[in-house]
């Protein structure tokens, strides 16, 4: 659980006692590569923390998969509507390689927020950082040419091209796979 704890503490100084309570509510789950762990249209009542592996979040638009996010070691993944609205969401989360997770029910997590302010603050900071990343991605798509978006992605996530299908990366960047291939050939 080292990757998860390291990432938690990068965001907020959660006490050992609170971490132990959080860990005691975790359920270890291992998913093979190419497993859909969250499905659009179905209420998923868990948050998954990734110890090892990588997932991608995506939506379906006119029958086409559009990648919206990647989560790797130390990250959390869940359906946003599931987490915040207690409603079935619109997104899918799929493992891209064998993925070791620890999950916790949203209900349990919400109860821990009420009794452990450091857990609540950690999650607030985590969600704040995710929001800022999403905002940065959105602004980049509006303002940066494809080459710069790709360079920024590789700078921020240096091993992504070794772990993720280039089609998913192209989709995430909002470009076609042939365009991504041309960009990569220039480097």
What is the CA–CA distance across the termini? 37 Å
Mean pLDDT: 94
- Unreliable runs: none
User: What is the count of DSSP helices, taking H or I runs of 4+ residues?
Assistant: 9
Structural class: alpha+beta
Can you count the beta strands?
A: 8
Gyration radius from CA atoms, angstroms: 17 Å
Helix fraction? Answer: 40-55%
Biggest sheet statistics: 4 strands, antiparallel
Instruction: Characterize the overall form.
Output: globular
Beta-strand content estimate: 15-25%
Strand order of the largest sheet: 1-8-3-6
Q: Element order, helices and strands?
A: HHEEEEEEHEEHHHHHH
Task: Describe the model.
The protein has 187 residues and is of the alpha+beta class. It has helices at residues 2-11, 16-24, 80-85, 106-115, 117-143, 146-156, 160-163, 166-173, 177-186; strands at residues 27-31, 36-38, 46-52, 55-61, 64-71, 76-77, 92-95, 99-105. Strands 1-8-3-6 form a four-stranded antiparallel sheet. Strands 2-7-4-5 form a four-stranded antiparallel sheet. Helix 4 packs across helix 5 (117-143) and helix 8 packs across helix 9 (177-186). The longest helix has 27 residues, at 117-143. It is globular and about 50 Å long. The N and C termini lie far apart (37 Å).
Task: Summarize the entry for a quick read.
With 187 residues, this protein is an alpha+beta fold. The protein has helices at 2-11, 16-24, 80-85, 106-115, 117-143, 146-156, 160-163, 166-173, 177-186; strands at 27-31, 36-38, 46-52, 55-61, 64-71, 76-77, 92-95, 99-105.
């Amino acid at each position: 659980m080292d990757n998860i704890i390291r990432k938690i503490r990068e965001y907020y100084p959660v006490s050992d006692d609170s971490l132990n309570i959080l860990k005691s509510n975790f359920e270890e789950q291992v998913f093979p590569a190419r497993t859909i762990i969250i499905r659009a249209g179905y209420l998923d009542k868990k948050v998954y923390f990734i110890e090892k592996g990588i997932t991608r979040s995506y939506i379906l638009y006119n029958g086409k998969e559009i990648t919206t996010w990647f989560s790797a070691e130390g990250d959390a993944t869940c359906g946003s509507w599931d987490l915040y609205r207690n409603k079935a969401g619109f997104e899918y989360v799929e493992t891209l390689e064998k993925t070791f997770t620890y999950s916790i029910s949203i209900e349990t997590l919400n109860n821990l927020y009420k009794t452990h302010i450091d857990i609540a603050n950690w999650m607030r900071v985590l969600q704040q950082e995710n929001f800022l990343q999403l905002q940065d991605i959105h602004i980049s798509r509006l303002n940066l040419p494809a080459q710069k978006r790709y360079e920024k992605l590789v700078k921020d996530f240096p091993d992504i091209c070794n772990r993720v299908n280039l089609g998913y990366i192209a989709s995430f960047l909002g470009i076609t796979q042939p365009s991504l291939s041309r960009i990569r050939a220039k480097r």
